[in-house]
Design a protein that fits this description.
The protein is an alpha+beta fold. The protein is built from ten helices and eight strands.
Length: about 260
Amino acid sequence: MDKLELQERLLKGENYDKIPISRASLGSLDIDHFRTFLKKYLAISPEESLIESYLENLKLITPNKKPTLAGILFFGENPQRFIPYAKIIAAYIPGTDISIPPADKKDLDGKILDVLEDTSRFLGLYIREEHRIKGFEPELYPEIPMAALREGVVNAIVHRDYTINAPIRLFIFNDRIEIRTPGKLPNTVTVASMKIAGCHVLRNPTLYNLLYKVGMVTDIGSGVYRMIKTIKEQLNKDVILTPTETEFIVSIPRI
């Protein structure tokens, strides 16, 4: 599909995550992984002859068997072969300014659930933990609740603008963690409405639906609100939301 056709389809209201990837084929999908998804999250064990029907019903392939963006990102054998920028660049910067060379940097790619798992692992390397004694056993408390960080990363993956050839960027500074999502906010979404869960605009509804089925989102548009509320309640600090012309920046303070 050329850029002109893509623009026409987007102008007609078609979501980008449902648009077919022209260079991909049904063989580009990890069908075994899809079967596991159906069994684990939907309690379905389909016959082989029904696999393509489930793929089409979930908007992972088109009627002519072309994988969609969502299909490749969630179940592709090698998603970055077709969408190389669909990844997270994660960096630990020992300071407070982006001009400081990173002490550690990773390209986190693969299927979306793999990216989320690897991102959690990278964050775990640099999030400080406090030992508190409860009863007779010590318990670990991360300086930032991992649930809040997960909300920020999931929100970036599901709401980013996939027409922009740029990765999500995750920066761990000494005083904050930044999640930088490619693209401007949709026209009807404002920072003020996000802070009160007053909007629920889905840029990539197929991806959102898949993440809902695996329990990563709630389907009520409260992810950013929950993140803000959790940080305020547990750290008494404010999450800073900054929209720009090229990306949306979430800044989560550290202790």
